[in-house]
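ingest -> validate -> predict -> emit
validate: passed (alphabet ok, no gaps, 204 aa)
predict: started
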Amino acid sequence: MTGIIDYGAGNLLSVANAVRSLGVESKIVAAPEDFDGVTRLILPGVGSFGDCVENLKRQQLWQPIKQWLADGKPYFGICLGYQVLFESSEETPGVEGLGHFAGQVVEFSPEAGDKIPHMGWNEVSLVDPAAAMWNGLADRTHVYFVHSFFPRPADGSIVACRTDYAGESFAAAVMSGAVWATQFHPERSQAAGLQLMKNFIDAN
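emit:
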């Protein structure tokens, strides 16, 4: 059973439809008791870092998610669901993230000349094309982004792919054990995104 976290601002319908198209059963997780029966977790995210943290805490989902990650259970973070895995974000100074990974979320520099937010299709450079995350996907695959901030992982070994934008070669995805997360939106990345979500489900 795939649980999709609902904290009041995620792109739930698109993610649920993508999971359904893969023939996989899912349920919405909006309260602690909703974790019952869930074997893998997806946290889609839109909005601000601080609002996401506040809403997850208000719904009493923060600690269950932290425990889920600590237990090494399958987790897929999308966009903001990727960023909150880290310790903090420049978007909302003083607000602590889940801290599952060391590192900070930082903002693109407008001085590079590219439009901010980074919005639209861009290619990803795979760090290890043989990794389970990339089954059936080629290097330089194009995926869909909408963001102004991105994580800088302290541990480079968790970086699964990189994308170039606004003078940065940033970590567009990470993979560590059963924890996968992407800055891009697989649910909006057509066939490539569906393949990536299928890979997560097949691996977990």
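The radius of gyration is 16 Å.
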